[in-house]
């Protein structure tokens, strides 16, 4: 795998949309061609080379291309948007929409990520070594299609609206989360190893939520049906299993009703 290192030399005055920073768009290009790729600051179009210097070499394909981002890019958005392969490593905090609509490859953020991480993600892997904000793996606002595949892992805590309208894939939050987990979900798995304040599974049709800490305010649309043992992220725990949301439409498979599940660690 070939590596392109991009180092911040000029911070934007506002926030910069870095949608061109993907292995797909870097692959097969020279350093000068990469520096000419567009970025937006509001309605003003810039070039990536106006803010970064570039070293190294891109691979011939996205799968053969790694991008390393150096410098404080906490005010830069959309790294890895719609990428299908390859790797991006961001050595600082990053702003919103990291890995949005991602289909493959891997993104690692060595710091924190802002909101809308991995929205509508279809595949690949995102690792956040710090915290994430709101709408992890959710649908874009006004849309009903959330994350459908892939893996998002946040080593720290996260905010609200995790996995909204999710249909597949896995989200792992190793710290605490706030409210609204798997709202409107029709599939997928969310694992929260810390505490959740409440509103887990509201209007859920299908999907699985695993809460290893405390759930402060459970929703009334769920009922306990069993105590089970489950393997979660490489370890086995005993859970109380709740099904719901009982107020929502339910499908049948081989004559059995399919429910969403909340598993609360005993």
TrEMBL record:
Pathway: One-carbon metabolism; methanogenesis from CO(2); 5,10-methenyl-5,6,7,8-tetrahydromethanopterin from CO(2): step 1/3. It catalyses: N-formylmethanofuran + 2 oxidized [2Fe-2S]-[ferredoxin] + H2O = methanofuran + 2 reduced [2Fe-2S]-[ferredoxin] + CO2 + H(+). Gene3D superfamilies: Glutamate synthase, alpha subunit, C-terminal domain. It is an enzyme of class 1 (oxidoreductase). It comes from the Archaea. GO terms for molecular function: formylmethanofuran dehydrogenase activity; transition metal ion binding. Keywords: Oxidoreductase. InterPro entries: Formylmethanofuran_DH_suC (IPR017550), Glu_synth_asu_C_sf (IPR036485). Its EC number is 1.2.7.12. One of its GO terms (biological process) is methanogenesis, from carbon dioxide. This is formylmethanofuran dehydrogenase. It comes from Methanospirillum hungatei JF-1 (strain ATCC 27890 / DSM 864 / NBRC 100397 / JF-1).
